[in-house]
Amino acid sequence: MLQCVPGKPFVIMTLRGRNESLPSVMLYSHTDVVPAPFSEECWKFAPFEAVKDVDGKIYGRGTQDMKSIGIQYVEALRRLLGRGQQKFLRTVHIVWGPGHFFFSALTLLTTALFFFNKLFLEEEVGGADGMEKFADDPKFAKLNVGFVLDEGLPTENDTFKVYFADKCPWWVVVCCRGQAGHGSQFLENTAGEKLQRVINSFMGFREEQKKLLESNKCLKACDVVTVNLTKIELAEVMRRNSRAVFRQM
């Protein structure tokens, strides 16, 4: 176990390969999960009970994202070893930790590329205290990682989906300043008018991308740019100027 930051440990389980000089394989899972609502009325089953229903589905906090994938890694290796599998050619590391590797699945990575990608690593709790510090730790370099499988999607059949890329999020903050005054007048150059033009521009582009996706069955969401308005802050009045802030993801 390695703790780059107290309270945020990385648990590393290693199966030594026949040729330890070869770049190793890392099967990575992040342990942090989104918060459970305070009210259990939002849950079909209590979030911390890990209840299995009659169909074999397990309900609980983090079962989908991404403990279901992590247990698949462990179970797959356990079954292979149980069937008499000897040492693999390469060393295999099963790693649990806070945050995950963006853009790293199915990619043969050099150490330099890992250190570049660490700038984009974060999950539910962010990667600054997790994967970023782990990538800087000398113990990470000693793992000699050349191939990583990170977060994917669980399936209900024998099809195992593997992704080689991830969408890159852009957080755009637009601040509109304008004239403020009494509501009995038609004021010119207001923040609201400017904000409307900005929103119309974003929503127009959003509609274009949505129609493009819907018109071509060969395209998926990862092939277009998704745009969503996530927050509009309250206007402020400062020195007779109004300000509206538009947050866009």
Automatic annotation (TrEMBL):
Zn(2+) 1 binds at residues 30, 65, 151. The chain crosses the membrane at residues 88-116. Binds 2 Zn(2+) ions per subunit. Its cofactor is Zn(2+). Pfam families: Peptidase_M20 (PF01546). The keyword Metal-binding applies. Keywords: Hydrolase, Membrane, Metal-binding, Transmembrane, Transmembrane helix, Zinc. One of its GO terms (molecular function) is aminoacylase activity. Gene3D superfamilies: 3.30.70.360, Zn peptidases. PROSITE patterns: ARGE_DAPE_CPG2_1 (PS00758). It comes from the Eukaryota. The keyword Lipid biosynthesis does not apply. Zn(2+) 2 binds at residues 65, 124. InterPro entries: Aminoacylase-1_M20A, ArgE/DapE_CS, Peptidase_M20. The active site is at residues 32, 123. This is N-acyl-L-amino-acid amidohydrolase. It comes from Gongylonema pulchrum.
